[in-house]
Task: inverse folding
């Protein structure tokens, strides 16, 4: 196990290095400068600015300087927010996105599993069809449309929850629902399919024949097998949700990281692009590792280090 | 897949219907805002910095204009009003300015505001190490250009303090709009003690600042979405400041902002295109001209055909500008001058009206056809193909679509293709001359037509199409040396008419934004150029 982990961690570091390198050089291919007032600056002024920020140096040298800084934990200073270290910008923005993403993930997956399981158990009945229709709608209606509807009807007309803002728990409810619907629909469809499969296998029949109750068959046998594939799904979902959604953040005035990422690309804010990309990437490789470990835990048939036998 | 799309489309329609339905009702603000003298305002983006040497954007300048003060404040119609300067003397040649400062002005840390703070601030901004993106506005102040290029010492800048309350500024040449510049936050004072104390944190959060303006800022932590301005008890003219608090929130989605307005949570919202259309009869509907003009530049250096004035005129006459503004929606106005409408008044008349071109900057398809035939003959070609370049934003795409259909419909045989690219890419194509026709926009930094008219002099780096006219150059140069204001404006009007007669550029529209502002908020001063808002004497009134 330790050997396996060590190997995986080495691969993770290699992955991060490759991503950092590729992002850096691709980013430098984007035309224009990181200066907000670029349109009004003369070529001479641009030259002076580039000298100040070291952007006149050859790209490979800039790359070495950047990687060197990164290894010392220095992600540089943002261009959009003058003098603000990228690390503190990310720190102040990541929290909101993480909280919102986590809430949406939990809500979506838990409800999704329940609805999917019920649909599978009542396969072919009106319950199943209703769940399927909801899943399709949930999957196909963009979350921002739902966000606008929730905001208008529940926020403004009924006044149950705040229209927008960030700080109190009540303000997180509407955006959580808007974000949760996608994973909810996906999970429900997924669980239904794999549960229908599982329910028709021989060992379920055996369980029933042994005289186990319906609930016990589902809980002890069907559920455990049906949930395994879901783990694959949840990993990337978790990263995607926790790193923020620009549209939902904008609609509900949430100070998240998603919008900052898009804005940093549009404004050529090089250090911020790199910083957020690395945070995303670190999140993803860690989640993938956890997914693999969790796999082994819930399904004894999967061995982490296959060659040890 | 198809089903999914239909569902998505249906949902979008539903959402729009909801947005429309939302336009029906409105609730008014409560009476407590009257007693508290508190207003809730929106900004469209986060504050990137409160360091005035580094600010580049509207949000920062709006904040700085209300928490800081310079020699003057800009009042209604960009009129210069007293700030820290109590007396101003100008030498006959217009090159030496002596300002006497008031002695009762204080920083929020209790120290007096002195002439040295101006000297320090200007030197800091112009220092190439500071990397100010607005340093070019110092051009004309003695040695400024040399210093910002690193070719002269910062101390040689034409500004010095004589004692604590006398400031002497030396210019290399007359700057007719110098007083206007002094009302722009870039030229406000900064306290050396504070800048040194906070070091690299200076201007990165409310607490790392000192203020000398009507308000002090609280609650901004660097990149958050809400903060406040509170009345500054140390401000020299506090008796004229009526508001106690201005709460700001960043609103990036117009429908959210309008929902918050209806719920009484904010008092002023910028409207998007559909809201503008639906709410234009509502009380509090206000138009805000933006000091920006959008226009076409023709690449005369790269495309020989575009050197032909009749072709450019034909294209201009073929464009129904009302079709462009209606495609864009919102409150934009068709343009017939380079200088933006509403930027500045000369003898009671809008400069843009004086400079307006009635011959070619209008819609006249019959004349357009004639001139197009003439141009083809002059050029000895049978047909012409051109590409119009613009941004890949919604507005950029709507503009190019409309231009393409207008021009192709009215000039038979012309082939127009369009290209919409991200802003930074579009910009680098424009500056490197890699285009046929480009849709450009320019916003003035200060309320003087020269900020537009300077653009199309022969060697100006923003003259991307390389249009050239020696008479135009002469008039612009003359406008900069004359001490007679009337003569100066006449020169600028003449110059702009030459540019438009030749269609060196083709004006399309003036950017205008519609707002909904609670009618009981009075005394807010809005200026299209530079820092937009001045809340010094704003108040909440009992009448609506």
Result:
């Amino acid at each position: 196990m330790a050997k396996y982990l060590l190997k995986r961690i080495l691969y993770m570091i290699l992955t991060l290095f490759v991503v950092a390198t590729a992002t850096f050089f691709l980013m430098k291919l984007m035309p224009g400068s990181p200066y907000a007032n670029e349109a009004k600056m003369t070529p001479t002024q641009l030259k002076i600015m580039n000298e100040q920020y070291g952007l006149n140096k050859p790209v490979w040298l800039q790359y070495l300087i950047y990687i060197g800084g990164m290894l010392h934990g220095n992600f540089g200073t943002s261009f959009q927010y003058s003098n603000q270290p990228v690390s503190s910008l990310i720190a102040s923005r990541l929290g909101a996105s993480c909280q919102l993403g986590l809430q949406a993930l939990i809500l979506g997956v838990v409800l999704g599993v329940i609805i999917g399981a019920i649909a599978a158990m009542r396969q072919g009945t009106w319950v199943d069809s209703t769940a399927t229709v909801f899943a399709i709608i949930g999957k196909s209606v963009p979350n921002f449309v739902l966000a606008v509807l929730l905001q208008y009807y529940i926020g403004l007309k009924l006044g149950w929850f705040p229209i927008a803002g960030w700080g109190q728990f009540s303000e997180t409810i509407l955006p959580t629902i808007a974000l949760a619907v996608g994973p909810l629909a996906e999970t429900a469809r997924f669980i239904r399919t794999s549960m229908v499969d599982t329910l028709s296998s021989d060992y379920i029949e055996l369980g029933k024949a042994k005289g186990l109750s319906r609930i016990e068959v589902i809980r002890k046998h069907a559920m455990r097998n049906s949930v395994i594939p879901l783990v694959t799904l949840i990993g990337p979902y978790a990263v995607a949700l926790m790193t923020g959604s620009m549209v939902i953040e904008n609609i509900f005035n949430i100070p998240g990281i998603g919008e900052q990422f898009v804005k940093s690309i549009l404004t050529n804010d090089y250090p911020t692009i790199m910083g957020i990309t690395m945070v995303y990437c670190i999140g993803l490789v860690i989640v993938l590792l956890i997914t693999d470990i969790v796999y082994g835990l819930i399904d004894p048939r999967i061995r982490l280090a296959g060659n040890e036998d | 897949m198809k089903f999914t799309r239909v569902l998505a489309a249906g949902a979008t329609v539903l959402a729009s219907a909801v947005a429309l339905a939302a336009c029906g009702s409105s609730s008014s603000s409560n009476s407590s805002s009257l007693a508290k003298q508190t207003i809730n305002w929106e900004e469209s983006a986060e504050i990137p910095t409160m360091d005035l040497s580094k600010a580049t954007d509207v949000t920062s300048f709006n904040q700085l204009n209300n928490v800081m003060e310079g020699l003057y404040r800009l009042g209604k119609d960009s009129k210069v009003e007293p700030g820290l300067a109590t007396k101003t003397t100008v030498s006959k040649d217009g090159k030496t300015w002596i300002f006497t400062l008031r002695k009762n002005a204080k920083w929020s840390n209790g120290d007096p505001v002195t002439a040295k703070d101006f000297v320090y601030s200007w030197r800091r901004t112009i220092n190439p190490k500071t990397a100010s993106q607005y340093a070019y506005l110092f051009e004309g102040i003695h040695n400024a250009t040399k210093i910002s290029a690193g070719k002269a010492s910062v101390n040689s800048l034409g500004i010095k303090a004589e004692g604590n309350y006398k400031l002497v500024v030396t210019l290399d040449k007359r700057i007719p709009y110098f007083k206007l510049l002094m009302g722009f936050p870039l030229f406000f004072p900064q306290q050396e003690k504070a800048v040194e104390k906070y070091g690299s944190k200076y201007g990165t959060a409310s607490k790392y600042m000192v203020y000398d303006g009507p308000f002090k800022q609280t609650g901004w932590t660097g990149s958050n979405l809400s903060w406040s301005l509170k009345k500054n008890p140390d401000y020299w003219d506090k008796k004229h400041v009526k508001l106690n608090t201005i709460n700001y929130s960043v609103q990036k989605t117009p429908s959210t902002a309008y929902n918050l307005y209806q719920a009484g949570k904010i008092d002023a919202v910028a409207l998007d295109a559909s809201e503008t259309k639906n709410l234009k009869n509502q009380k509090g509907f206000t138009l805000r001209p933006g000091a920006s003009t959008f226009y076409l530049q023709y690449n005369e250096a790269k495309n020989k055909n575009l050197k032909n004035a009749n072709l450019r005129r034909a294209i201009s006459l073929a464009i129904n500008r009302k079709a462009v503004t209606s495609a864009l929606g919102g409150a934009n106005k068709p343009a017939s001058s380079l200088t933006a409408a509403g930027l500045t008044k000369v003898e009671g008349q809008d400069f843009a009206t004086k400079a307006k071109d009635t011959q070619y900057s209008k819609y006249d398809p019959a004349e357009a056809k004639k001139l197009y035939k003439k141009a083809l003959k002059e050029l000895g070609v049978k047909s012409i193909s051109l590409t119009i370049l613009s941004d890949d934003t919604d507005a950029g795409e709507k503009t190019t679509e409309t231009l393409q259909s207008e021009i192709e419909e009215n000039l038979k045989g012309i082939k127009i293709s369009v290209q919409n690219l991200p802003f930074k890419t579009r910009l680098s194509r424009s500056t490197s001359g890699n285009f046929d026709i480009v849709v450009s926009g320019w916003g003035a930094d200060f309320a003087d037509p020269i900020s537009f008219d300077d653009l199309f002099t022969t060697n100006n780096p923003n003259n991307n199409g390389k249009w050239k006219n020696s008479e135009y150059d002469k008039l612009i140069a003359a406008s900069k040396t004359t001490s007679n204001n009337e003569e100066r404006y006449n020169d600028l009007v003449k110059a702009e008419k030459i540019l438009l007669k030749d269609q060196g550029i083709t004006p399309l529209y003036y950017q205008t934004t519609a707002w909904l502002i609670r009618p009981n908020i009075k005394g807010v001063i809005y200026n299209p150029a530079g820092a937009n808002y001045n809340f010094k004497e704003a108040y909440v009134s009992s009448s609506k």
